From TrEMBL:
Keywords: Hydrolase. Coiled coil: none annotated. The keyword Hydrolase applies. InterPro entries: Beta-glucanase-like, ConA-like_dom_sf, Glycosyl_Hydrlase_16. Residues 17-281 form the GH16 domain. Belongs to the glycosyl hydrolase 16 family. This is Glycoside hydrolase family 16 protein. PROSITE patterns: GH16_2. GO terms for molecular function: hydrolase activity.
Length: 281
């Protein structure tokens, strides 16, 4: 790997210091141009000009405490590591009814990084090459959220999500009930994809997001395609969460509302990412 980082601003140019040959030459033939990428080739912490870290207990009643220490770059890969380790919760309140504050300690740690406030995009081809661990209770994801509005009316796209033996592709919009989403989803079981042999390899996840539809792929296999006309919020606002820029997240969650039990899981575990790229026409 020889390439480091590409950056793009609307109305500007791509700043290229050393470019890796793009194996997806078909993208160029289809009119796409690389506008941003992180190849994770610099050893150390993720590039602070592109990524910020989430901190603490964040969402979905998940087991992990997010912290910066669990994400780093080495040998051309971004590593997000899940660990079983005790960390005091500084916001602990014994009588609290909030799951974020009523836990005296976190029993697991991990990392979640996002491009919020750094980079966001509206439409394009988004590509990630990565390798996931499918041990019990793990919940790795590569996804987007809209820059404006409250979830789920800001819109969510899960290009890669795994839990409980299934790989998922999801698109969410708002409904008339606060914090309740309308989901457009499809899943493939890991057994169906190839079982342990599939898990042992890196794979390519892709999203094609246009003014007409959103399509999600794994290794060029279409998982779901949804017309943009059906993705308006049903919250009475008549807003469209995918007619605005979205930012990107990479994280390894554990447990919580979907992840499952961690009692028999061996640690540490890793979600490894070779690159993330964004192309636009």
């Amino acid at each position: 790997m020889t390439c480091i980082l590409f950056a793009f601003a609307l109305g500007g140019t791509v700043n290229v210091s050393a470019q890796k040959a793009d194996p997806e030459s078909i993208y160029t033939k289809e009119g796409y141009k690389l506008v941003w990428a992180d190849e994770f080739n610099n050893n150390g912490k993720p590039d602070a000009t592109s990524w910020t870290h989430e901190q603490g207990f964040v969402r979905n009643e998940e087991a992990q405490w997010y912290q910066q220490d669990n994400a780093w770059c080495e040998n051309g890969l971004l590593v997000i590591e899940g660990r079983k380790e005790t960390r005091p919760n500084p916001g602990f309140k014994k009588e609290s009814g909030d799951w974020r504050s009523n836990r005296e300690n976190a029993e697991y740690t991990s990392s979640s990084i996002k491009t919020a406030g750094k980079h966001s995009w509206q439409y394009g081809r988004f590509v990630m090459r990565g390798k996931i661990d499918v041990s019990s209770g793990l919940w790795p994801a590569w996804w987007t959220l809209g820059v404006s509005g409250e979830w789920p009316s800001n819109g969510e796209i899960d290009m890669m999500e795994y839990y409980r033996g299934k790989l998922l592709a999801n698109i969410a919009v708002g409904t008339s009930k606060k914090y309740q989403a309308e989901w457009h989803s499809n899943s493939k079981s890991i057994i169906e994809l190839g079982g342990p042999e599939w898990v042992s390899k890196f794979h390519i996840w892709r999203m094609d997001w246009t003014e007409k539809d959103i399509a999600l792929y794994i290794d060029e296999q279409l998982l779901i395609k949804v017309d943009m006309d059906s993705l308006y919020n049903k919250d009475g606002s008549n807003t469209h969460p995918f007619k605005q820029p979205h930012y990107m997240l990479l994280n390894l969650a554990m447990g919580g509302t979907n992840g499952g039990g961690l009692e028999n899981t061996k640690f540490p575990n890793r979600f490894e990412v070779d690159y993330v790229r964004v192309y636009q026409k």
